[in-house]
Amino acid sequence: MNKDSILITVVALIVGVLGGYLIFSISTAGKAGQTDGAASAVIGSPIDYSRRIAQAEKIVAQDPKNFNAWVSLGNDYFDTEQVQKSINAYGKALEIQPNNPNVLTDQGVMFRKVGWYDKALANFENANKIEPNHLQSLYNAGLVYAVDLKQPEKAAHYWQRYLQLDSSSQTALQIKAMMKDPDKSKKPAMK
């Protein structure tokens, strides 16, 4: 063997040992209850929303046309119950891609949280026009009509369309139960 081959072998051995040590350390740290840094992401520990939000805010400050960063920011605000910030972030994403049914639906859910049912319904209906088989928009439109506006006949229109597309999922079973007994639709969660 020449010097180069020996050097490459030694470097590969060191990298392998260090890599194995890092993987072992991360898996051990997670089992011990640590929720910091890379170990959190690897083992599914709680998400550090404040760090993610700060990173996304930096990205959109530098690149205001970054659709994915706006959606990520909207989602993290959504998950941390920062409703108005979520609405605004989704609004920025929709300025870039106005025909995104998922973002329209997520923003609609946030509109519902602040009691803007007309805006929520407009978003759900737009999402469904863009993608007629968009289950989340159908479910959520029905929920606003059934729970918030107390108009089960209008809810039934959306939920029947939902059930034509999906009749056996957990959500479909929940819809069927709410259609049979409107009192069961008092506290279901939006999706």
Describe this structure in words.
This protein has 191 residues and is mainly alpha-helical. It has three domains: 46 residues; 51 residues, Serine Threonine Protein Phosphatase 5, Tetratricopeptide repeat; 93 residues, Alpha Horseshoe (Serine Threonine Protein Phosphatase 5, Tetratricopeptide repeat), CATH 1.25.40.10. It contains ten helices and no strands. α4 packs antiparallel against α5, α4 runs parallel beside α6 and α8 packs antiparallel against α9. It starts with a helix and ends in an 11-residue tail after the last helix. About 18% of the residues have low confidence.
Beta-sheet strand percentage?
under 5%
Could you tell me the radius of gyration in angstroms?
23 Å
User: What's the tally of helices?
Assistant: 10
Largest pleated sheet: none
Briefly characterize the structure.
The chain has 191 residues and is mainly α.
Short descriptors:
Serine Threonine Protein Phosphatase 5, Tetratricopeptide repeat; 10 helices
Topology:
Layout: H1 3-31, H2 37-43, H3 49-62, H4 67-79, H5 83-96, H6 101-113, H7 117-130, H8 135-148, H9 152-165, H10 170-180
Helix pairs in contact: 1-2, 3-4, 4-5, 4-6, 5-6, 6-7, 6-8, 7-8, 8-9, 9-10
